[in-house]
């Protein structure tokens, strides 16, 4: 009896997990695009900061 109960709970959890995955698949493309844009922006900001630091070092020399 106990094993049957656990089996039913396991199947229910698998169905819930699959439902959530299907919902997330629809939402991911927008998120991925925003994430890539943020990465590119942060990369350009980083390169600007590095350039500023290099300029300061050159001025010090």
Give structural notes:
With 61 residues, the protein is mostly helical. The chain has one domain. Helix content is 97%, strand content 0%. It is built from 1 helix and no strands. The N and C termini lie far apart (80 Å). The model has no long low-confidence stretch (mean pLDDT 70).
Topology, element by element:
Layout: H1 2-60
Separation, N- and C-terminal Cα atoms: 80 Å
Radius of gyration: 25 Å
> What percentage of the residues does DSSP assign to strands (E)?
under 5%
Query: What would the principal axes of the Cα set say about the shape?
Result: rod-shaped
* Count of helical stretches: 1
Q: Kindly state the number of beta strands.
A: 0
Q: Report the helical percentage.
A: over 70%
Category by helix and strand content: mainly alpha
The low-pLDDT segments are none
Order of helices and strands: H
Main sheet overview: none
Q: Which whole number gives the mean pLDDT?
A: 70
Number of domains: 1
């Amino acid at each position: 009896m106990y094993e049957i109960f656990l089996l039913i709970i396991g199947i229910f959890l698998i169905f819930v997990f699959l439902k959530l995955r299907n919902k997330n698949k629809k939402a991911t493309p927008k998120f991925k695009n925003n994430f890539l844009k943020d990465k590119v922006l942060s990369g350009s900001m980083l390169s600007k900061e590095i350039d500023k630091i290099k300029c300061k070092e050159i001025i010090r020399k």
